[in-house]
Amino acid sequence: QVQLVESGGGLVQPGGSLRLSCAASKRIFGFDTMGWYRQAPGAKERELVATITGTGVGITKYADSVKGRFSISRDNAKNTVYLQMNSLKPEDTAVYYCTLNRVVWGQGTQVTVSS
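The structure assignment produced for this chain is given below.
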């Protein structure tokens, strides 16, 4: 069973940037969809942030709320997916989860945007 480990969360001021990483314990393939979801405080469900499928640049999908600010990428050689988050807003505060094909999930990493 593959495991996913997220890192890179923390406290950042509005307008700042963070880069999240998600390392898989086993090889991931180009046809695997890797993604980031988040769950805000008090929210009942996780919401999609971004997904990526394929090699190279890949096919990406973003939530409307993060388009133009967040960027997802992957390095299949390192079995790692990244989420670059720029121009962060307080409403981006959430626990961010990495997922492989929405079947395997990481433990989550806290992102707090506050002054």
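Interim note for the steering committee: The mean pLDDT is 95. The CA atoms of residues 2 and 26 lie 6 Å apart.
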